[in-house]
Amino acid sequence: MTASFMDLVDVTIVNIAMPSIKRDIGASFSILQWITEGYALAFAAGLITGGRLGDIFGRRRMFLLGMSGFTLASMLCGVAADPHFLVAARVLQGGMAALMVPQVLAIVHSTFPAEERGKVFGLFGMVVGLGAVSGPILGALLTQWNLFGLEWRPIFLVNLPVGIAGLLLGRRYIAESKAPRALKLDLVGVALATSALLMLLYPLTQGRELGWPLWGYLCTAGSAVVFALFVAYERRKAARDGSPLVELSLFRVKSFAAGIALQTAFGIACGIFFLIWTLYMQIGLGWSALHAGLTGVPFSLAVSAAAGMSVQKLVPRFGRKVLQAGALTMMCGVLLYIWEAKHFGTGITSWEMALPLVVMGTGMGLIVAPLTDAVLSEVPREHSGSASGLINTTQQLGNAIGLGLVSVVFFDAVDQGAVAHGRIGQAFSDAYAHGMWWVTGVLCLVLALMFALPRKASARAAAEADTEPADELPLAA
C-alpha cells in the first residue's frame, strides 16, 4: 500500500510544482514536459518487464529493489540543481516505479487467500483515492511552505522517510513468491518499442523550441518504421518461444483492439489536460501553488464519487452506456470550461471553475473504474493476464504522448507578442482554450471507440482475474 501511495502521489504532486521548478533552476517549457513525460515513458516501457522480473527472480526481491531505487531517485530529484539532471532522475524514478508497482497486487494475490482479498482490494481502492486527492494538495502545501528555503524540492524528498519505512516493513513482513512457469524476458522488444516512442515524442517535445527542423520530421517518420520492426519481431518471438512482450493475437478480438486504442486516446486527453491546466492557473492566472491545488479538490472528489457509483450500481445495469455517458459528460465539462475561460478571462475565480471541474470529474469517474473490465470482457481466459498488462501500459503511453503534444496544442498557441507586451495572462488563457479544444476532439474519438465495446461488460473478467497469476491483475486505477 505504501508503494502504491508513493507512486500515485508522485504522479499528481509534480504538476503543481512546475512553475516553482521553472523559476528555481531555469527549466524551459520543453524541460517541464520531459519532467512528467520522462517518468510516464519509463514507467510505461518497463511495466510488463517489471512484472516478469518479479515472476522470475521473486516478487519480494523486485519490490524491495524497486522501492530502494524509487527512494534513491526521489533523493536525486530533490537535490537536482540542473534541469537535465532532474529529467534523468525522473526517468530513473519512472523505471524504478515500473519495477515496484507490478509487484503490489502480485504480492497481495500470493499472500492472502481468496476469501480475504476483497478486503485488501477495498483498502487498495481507498489508498488509490487518497493518493489521487492528496497529491495535488500535498504538492501545493510543500511548495507554498518553502520548507528550509528548499522551494519545490520537498515534493520529492518527502518520499525518503516513506520509502525507508516501506523498505524496513517490507523486509520484515513480505513473503517471497515466484510464478511457477515464468515467461522469458523480451528485452529486444522493450528496446524497439521504447526507441519508436522516443523517435515520436522527442521531436514533438523539442521541435517548437528548435524551430521544427527537418530531422524532427524524419525522426517522426522513422518511428513508424521502428514500430513496424517491433511488430515483426514480436511475431517471430511468439513463434519461437511463446513469450513476446506483446501478445499480438489479442488484437484479433475487436473489442480489445478498440479498447487499447480507447485507453491510449484517454491517456492522451488526460496528459494534455492536467499539464496545461496547471500552467494556465499558475503562470497564466498567477495563482499560488496552494490556490491551484485547492481549486482541483472538487475535481478529485467528483472522480472518486462517480467511480464508486459506476462500478457498484450503474455498470451492472446499463453496461457500456455508462462509459459513453461518462465521455459525453466529460466533454460537456470541457466545453463549459472553454466558455468560462473565454467569458471571464484572467478574472476567473476558483468558485467559477468548480462547476466545469465537477462535471469533468464526474465524467472521468464514470469511465476510469469500469473501463478495464469492459475491454477485457471478450478476451480469452488464457490471455487475460497479458491483456490487462497491455491495457495499463498503453494508458501510460497515451499519457506520455499527450504530454509530448502539449508543445503543439498549447505552447505553439501562446501569443508571443502578447507575452512580450506583458499580457501573459491573456496569452495563456487563449492557449488553454485552444488546448482544451484538442482535449474535446480526443474525447470524441474516445466516445466513438466505445461503440466497439460489448454492450454489457461481463463479470467474467473480474472472476477470472482471481485465478490469474498475481502480477497479471489489471491495475485499473
Quick structural gist:
Helices cover 78% and strands 0% of the residues. It is mainly α and 477 residues long. 52% of the residues are buried.
Report on this model:
There is one protein chain. By secondary structure, the chain is an all-alpha fold. 78% of the residues lie in helices and 0% in strands. The protein has helices spanning 2-13, 18-25, 29-57, 59-79, 83-100, 102-111, 114-145, 154-157, 159-173, 187-206, 214-241, 254-284, 289-295, 297-318, 320-344, 350-376, 384-409, 416-420, 424-450, 460-465. Helix 7 runs antiparallel to helix 13 (289-295) and helix 15 (320-344) runs antiparallel to helix 16. The model is unreliable at 459-477 (pLDDT under 50).
